Amino acid sequence: MDERSSSRRAVVDAVAGAISGGVSRTIVSPLDVVKIRFQVQLEPTSTRLLSGVPHGVSKYTGIIQAMREILQEEGLWGLWRGNVPALLLVMPYTAIQFVVLQAVATHVVKGGNSSPVMSYVGGALAGCAATIGSYPFDLLRTVLASQGEPKVYPNMRSAFWEIYQTRGIRGLYSGLTPSLVEIVPYAGLQFGSYDTFKRWAAAWNQQKITAHESGQAKELSGLQHFLCGLGAGTLAKVFCHPLDVVKKRYQIEGLARHPRYGAKVEERAYKSVWHAVYRILESEGWAGLYKGMFPSVVKAGPASAITFVVYEKASRWLEASVL
User: Fold this and answer.
1) Which CATH superfamily is domain 3-322 in?
2) Percent of the chain with pLDDT over 70
3) Is the pTM of this model over 0.70?
4) Where are the domains of the chain?
């Protein structure tokens, strides 16, 4: 592939990735808001005792209850709170991710090593690059989605300036380390398992080809792409959810939050990723590391499926138009 073709390929991957990320994120936003509310509340979702010490009752105890509370207190748009910074996050994130993934895949094919393992490695590298490139928007999305009513930060700009003025550039990258620790296995599993599931689906299709069609390639259907993405997203989220909880705690530590939403995470509460895990286990038990797990998994599967389906469709349309 010459330099001009490579540039066009990168444009296709970037645009298709941005479109797929934006569509997917907007559709699943309510579940993402609910997930974040669970992840950042320090109180357990039940009134049980932890280490013999009673904890306060949490505001949110279940997906339906949480959605009902948000609708009653914040209106319909409360379920899309933080969606603008989320779109500003996810569109460049998925664009960078697919561009890097395609570049890695092209390099691997040229090197003659197209083993399935390289799909996991490529996914991890793509996830790291995308995370670093779009991280401040991830932080702003979490802050805005978690604050509830009354708002502490009326909009994204005020949140940005408040964090920048009080904590500097480092504040806009708070939680980057646990994010990178999370994204390596998450993106690796998501893209690697998606590629693996596609290989299985293609092999299954090949078995279904009739004798007179022998030798003809049969493309995966939209439903097959959807199911492969659904499985990949669910698998990655189940394994990596505790690290996502730690990341969210890092992102909001020291930031103001209305008391009705529970205790706030004190500034410098965590010395490292493993210290954060220890503190959560100590005060909230194992359940603390899996707060928001159900809405997270319910969101991650469809989000991944929609992203891959829209990307496949958009990239094919763009390939016909640009390449």
Assistant:
1) Mitochondrial carrier domain (1.50.40.10)
2) 87
3) yes
4) 3-322
